[in-house]
Write a structure and sequence with these properties.
With 535 residues, the chain is an alpha+beta fold. 35% of the residues lie in helices and 19% in strands. The protein has 16 helices and 19 strands. It has a 6-stranded mixed β-sheet, with helices on both faces. It has a 3-stranded antiparallel β-sheet with strand order 17-18-19, with no helix packed on it. The protein has a two-stranded antiparallel ribbon with strand order 1-2. Helix 1 packs across helix 4 and helix 2 packs across helix 3. The chain is elongated. About 2% of the residues have low confidence.
């Protein structure tokens, strides 16, 4: 395969030897000498050709020696040497004279050149189909970490890679293994290795399940089916299996033109809502976060690469076809970054107080950004992504539709200004999960803050001991509730201005009902108390 480009170029040069490449329509060039005439005028006269053969004989001797060296090297390092490849190596690395086209079987050489070119196009296309998803994953991981831009490093985001396909991960034999691991990191009061967020990309976007798919070599002029997309069924199995561990999972759809900024700007978000409707009103809904749209690195309409054109044999020799239909192109079908990586990266980044201190002045260095609402005020403009804008923005109709639905973790490429300066990066427009409350999708910070509060509550009350829970919510200035409410003036306060936290213990059932009030919006938690410590 490595010799194929070499063979194509060699065949091309041999066929076109002595040709100008344009049908020999251009003028012939000869060596000239610039002189001055008797009256001072400039003249260019043809330089005389040397008839000496001494230099030519010396060059032939050197060339023949090189030929033998290269042939010997090729035969020594190759298990099955062939005369054609041997001659190809020699012609490539030795300063041979121009091949005489009369010694070439032109029709046969043209047929060989065209078949080489076709095979090269097909193999490169197949290679791109395999490597493109890998490149997109690598870019996604890079962009995830790239969102954390902070001079002073604090809570630097980390990533645990499962290194397994989603459909394999959720199999009945594998999912329990994942749950056993999560029990060791998420169900303990030591939070150093706790997993807070998850990323799942390449969820199938189309629903044509009854169409028979056939594999073909990549041609570039047909819609390419991605064999590595994940099904919605696999995603729901994963969400159901890990929801007890309170992992907020960002997921995005397969990377293609249909899930890009351009399509959202044209068609809106209705197709995303229809595709994710199955995830609403479930126990895991608040932990499912659809991220959209995917970011474009190389758009599909700009991902074409011209390899070459077919060669045509004629009575006079061979020439490259000028017909557009004879152009051989290679289509990459676009390169995109899954939006789930960007969404998880920006949310993980603003959990760090040091990161927030680079954006805001009123930051408490003791608290993570669990209560930080990126939709509020100008937070999204201050905490922008590191990716440059792709389009000039959504139309007013599209934005009105998004604001009415309040759906998903949606990115924006609108023209915005902050403190008189243009914001040139992609920003967050909505940050919602699939949880429906009063027919409206819930902000992701509410689930994250509630998870943080319950984990802190469990750690500080000795696994929900009755008397310790009462102390946790007491009016004592040293209680955890009083300390949180006493520090509401920060952008990362656990309890912001207008928030409140109350509890009610059902002694008969030994259950504590916690009511979290986020600026007028309630979120209820039910906690089973430790009976052994009940009063």
């Amino acid at each position: 395969m490595a010799m194929l480009p070499l063979a194509i170029e060699d065949s091309k040069q041999r066929l076109l030897a002595g040709s100008t490449g344009d049908g020999d329509s251009s003028e012939k060039f000869v060596a000239g000498l610039l002189t001055m005439g008797d009256e001072g005028e400039l003249k260019i006269i043809e330089r005389p050709t040397s008839e000496s053969t001494a230099v030519a004989i010396a060059e032939d001797t050197t060339t023949n020696a090189l030929i033998e060296v290269f042939k010997e090297d090729y035969e020594n390092i190759t298990d099955n040497p062939t005369d054609y490849v041997s001659d190809l190596v020699v012609r490539t690395f030795c300063p041979l004279p121009v091949t005489n086209t009369t010694d070439i079987d032109v029709p046969k050489e043209v047929e060989k050149y065209n078949s080489y070119l076709e095979f090269y196009q097909e193999t490169k296309g197949d290679f791109i189909k395999v490597v493109k998803p890998l490149i997109e994953k690598i870019l996604g991981v890079f962009i995830y970490f790239d969102q954390y831009q902070s001079k002073n490093k604090g809570m630097v985001p980390t990533m645990l890679i499962c290194n397994n396909k989603l459909d394999m991960l959720v199999k009945s034999s594998n999912l329990p293994r994942l749950q056993v691991y999560l029990n060791t990191v998420n169900n303990k009061n030591d939070f150093r290795n706790t997993i807070w967020f998850g990323i799942v990309n390449d969820i199938e976007f189309t629903t044509e399940t009854n169409v028979k798919l056939t594999r073909e070599r990549f041609k570039g002029n047909k819609k390419v089916s991605k064999p590595d997309v994940n099904t919605m069924e696999s995603l729901t199995s994963l969400l159901f299996g890990i929801c007890d561990y309170k992992i907020q999972t960002f997921f995005s759809f397969e990377t293609c033109e249909d899930t890009s900024f351009t399509k959202v700007a044209t068609n809106g978000i209705e197709s995303y809502m229809d595709r994710t409707q199955v995830l609403t009103r479930k126990d895991y809904s608040e932990y499912a976060i659809p991220a959209l749209p995917n970011m474009s690195i190389v758009p599909k309409n700009k991902s074409g690469l011209i390899l070459d054109s077919y060669m045509i044999a004629t009575d006079e020799g061979a020439h490259i076809s000028q017909d557009k239909k004879d152009l051989l192109k290679l289509w990459i079908e676009g390169v995109y970054i899954p939006a789930a990586y960007v969404a998880a990266g920006i949310v993980a980044a603003y959990q760090c107080p040091e990161f927030l201190r680079g954006k805001f002045k009123n930051v408490n260095p003791e608290y993570p950004g669990v209560r930080f609402d990126i939709e509020a005020s100008n937070h999204a403009l201050k905490v922008a992504t590191t990716l440059a804008k792709e389009i000039s923005g959504y139309t007013n109709n599209i934005k009105d539709n998004i604001n009415n639905k309040n759906f998903g973790f949606i990115f924006s490429s609108d023209n915005n200004q902050l403190d008189g300066k243009d914001v040139k990066q992609i920003t967050v427009y909505k940050a919602r999960s699939m949880q429906m409350v009063n027919n409206e999708y819930e902000c992701i910070y509410k689930t994250l803050a509630a998870t943080y509060i319950t984990r802190m509550m469990r750690a500080q009350t000795g696994d929900y001991k009755h008397d310790n829970v009462v102390s946790f919510f007491s009016a004592n200035p040293m209680s955890q509730k009083s300390r949180w409410i006493g520090k509401t003036g920060y952008v990362n306060s656990i309890m912001a201005a207008g928030d409140d936290m109350n509890y009610d213990i059902e002694e008969e059932y030994n259950i504590c009902n916690v009511n979290l009030n986020f600026n007028g919006n309630s979120k209820n938690l039910e906690i089973v108390l430790n009976k052994n410590a009940a009063i």
